[in-house]
Design a protein that fits this description.
490 residues; 7-stranded mixed β-sheet; 6-stranded mixed β-sheet; globular
Length: 490
């Protein structure tokens, strides 16, 4: 790992100097007031909205082919409601909370103050290179912090655009941008931040956590995993298949909340697969020259996804490539892979364990829900679990008996629709959450402030010598606590 004092691309100053500059300004100015927090949020949102078209063009160029309208809808418009919810509620979230109210009658005052942590580092991913740095930065601003962002090296045009625009809206002591390769990212992760936020794969997330641990930096890791989908016994098969097929193809399947593998009732598998194929054919009558069909981000990811498909095929899986007539796919020149349906997957295949992150959907059959629950629970907890069907007892049993970052029913990424709902994983799919109040809490230290105006000490009785009255009251309190506990157990 590169030392944290290395310089970012295009900058002569060491990375640690960027952190030190922001921390010095933070300590000198103190926690920002409501007006300044909202002003920083407004400037960040204006930066994005005023340059939305240029950002969409930059991301399309970074990918090779990425639908411009898709970028505007998911990448940019998708963040607006969350940001505006945060801006609208920060005044409420900033207020100190009074605790132990009865103590005030006797001269004990206790409050909990939400205080900013200081300097927050954000490491962004390539699949949503703008949205997934702006949203955590917004939450960090709401909590009163300064922010340093490392943009993904796999989307260099988007990164350079942010690096050029941010100085026009922010002083570097408020927000600064770092660009550079994987070595710069490794050095960035090892910096002495007050909090580090990372979005990416579990493998890289583990390395980020290790690097941050050397400085005892708290981390939020937004990761991924193989998201299961269950088509319930009473689901509308055609509707479920159509929506799952559409969700799988958003951003070319390169989304951490994409459906990865689907459990379908055994009697409905053929109908489900037929509808998926029909949906894909209707969505993509052509692929190679289609500006709405997203490319793999780079050659390495193109090769990785095609290798997963080939490995499954060689080992006996049924692989159906929904390729338009007259086209030859996958195509390394455009890095486009046709939507692919895979059945009869077993545990010897890499596709069974590795997050696909491409236009591939695995379909499995089931006879009873218990076998689905056992399969999901035997694997790392996913970022989201999907269910298609009514909100009935069967669905509630699935929610109760499985573990995932979130649950979405009957629609792609439905768990992200409420602006105030926490978004995050659990276990291997992530540590911590953001969006809404959860984002404010992530970047906030809740500081207890307690004072006593009593003429006698409360806690000083724990110091020797121990008087007889002190021993007697301690024994009485313990007996009372034992009695209450035993009574509850009975």
């Amino acid at each position: 790992m590169t030392a944290p004092y290395g310089a970012a691309v295009g900058r002569s100053e060491p990375l640690v100097a960027l952190v030190e500059r922001q921390r010095a300004s933070f300590l000198a100015d103190g926690p920002p007031d409501l007006a300044l927090r909202r002003n920083r949020i407004d400037r960040l949102l204006a930066l994005v909205l005023d340059n939305a078209d240029d950002f969409a063009d930059a991301m399309a160029a970074d990918y090779g082919t990425r639908p411009r309208d898709g970028s505007l809808f998911t990448e940019i418009l998708g963040m607006v409601s969350v940001i505006e919810h945060t801006r609208g509620h920060v005044k409420q979230w900033m207020r100190p909370a009074k605790v132990l109210p009865s103590g005030r009658l006797f001269g004990v005052k206790a409050e909990v103050h939400p205080t900013p942590k200081g300097v927050v580092g954000v490491i962004g991913p390539w699949n949503f290179p703008l949205n997934l740095v702006v949203l955590p930065a917004t939450a960090a601003f709401a909590a009163g912090n300064r922010v340093l962002i490392k943009m993904s090296e796999l989307t260099p045009r988007t990164a350079q655009m942010m690096a050029a625009l941010v100085p026009k809206h922010f002083d570097p002591t408020e927000l600064d941008i770092v660009t550079g390769d994987a070595q710069v990212a490794a050095a960035f992760a090892a910096l002495p931040f007050d909090h580090l936020f990372f979005t990416g794969s579990p493998t890289v997330g583990a390395l980020v956590g290790q690097a941050a641990a050397a400085n005892l930096v708290p981390v939020t890791l937004e990761l991924g995993g193989k998201n299961p989908v269950v088509v319930g016994p009473d689901a509308d098969i055609a509707r479920a298949a159509t929506r799952i097929a559409q969700g799988r193809m958003i951003n070319g399947g390169q989304v951490c909340v994409c459906p990865d593998y689907v459990f379908v009732p055994e009697a409905h598998v053929e109908r489900f697969c037929a509808t998926v194929r029909e949906t894909w054919r209707a969505m993509f009558p052509s692929i190679l020259g289609n500006a709405d069909y997203c490319s793999a981000i780079n050659d390495a990811n193109f090769a990785r996804v095609t290798a997963l498909i080939d490995d499954a095929r060689v080992k006996g899986a049924r692989v159906e490539s929904v390729t338009p007539v007259g086209e030859s796919l996958p195509d390394p020149a455009t890095r486009k892979i046709a939507p692919t349906l895979v059945r009869d997957v077993d545990e010897s295949m890499a596709l069974a364990a590795e997050e696909t992150f491409g236009p591939v959907l695995t379909v499995r059959s089931y006879r009873c829900l218990d076998e689905v629950v056992d399969y999901v629970n035997a694997r790392p907890s996913p970022l989201v679990a999907y269910w298609f069907g009514p909100d009935d007892q069967t669905f509630r049993s699935f929610v109760r008996e499985t573990r995932s970052g979130g649950v979405a029913r009957n629609d792609f990424a439905a768990q992200m629709i409420p602006s105030d709902a926490p978004f995050g994983g659990v276990g291997r799919s992530g540590i911590g959450a953001y969006h809404g109040k959860a984002g404010f809490d992530t970047f906030t230290h809740y500081r207890s402030v307690v004072g006593s105006d009593l003429p006698v000490t409360i806690t000083g009785r724990a110091a020797p010598p121990f008087s007889a009255p002190m021993r007697w009251t301690t024994a009485l309190a313990l007996r009372s606590a034992r009695h209450r506990t035993r009574r509850r157990l009975r």
